[in-house]
Design goal:
Elements (H helix, E strand, L loop, with lengths): L12 E4 L7 E3 L2 E3 L8 E4 L5 E5 L2 E5 L5 E5 L1
Antiparallel strand pairs: 1-4, 2-3, 4-7, 5-6
Length: 71
């Protein structure tokens, strides 16, 4: 196994969902979106793609990269 020091762990990020795509097909299987606008979610720190639109920063993340929905 691999042992990492506590300082080497990536910290998850908490974010709010501002838009959700329609889903689609992955490897021939239909993917239904379970997230909705307004959900608070936890993602890996380095997951997704960072974009900047009109001065605001957003992350585009696959639903499979969401670690948890925060209630």
């Amino acid at each position: 196994g691999i042992i990492l020091a506590g300082s080497a762990k990536e910290k998850p990020a908490v974010a709010e969902v501002v838009a959700v795509g329609p889903g689609g097909l992955v490897d021939g299987n239909e993917v239904k979106m379970t997230l909705k606008v307004g959900d608070k979610v936890i993602t890996g720190k380095y997951s997704g793609t960072e974009v900047k639109i009109d001065g605001a920063e957003y992350s585009i993340v696959r639903q499979s990269d969401i670690l948890a929905i925060v209630e």
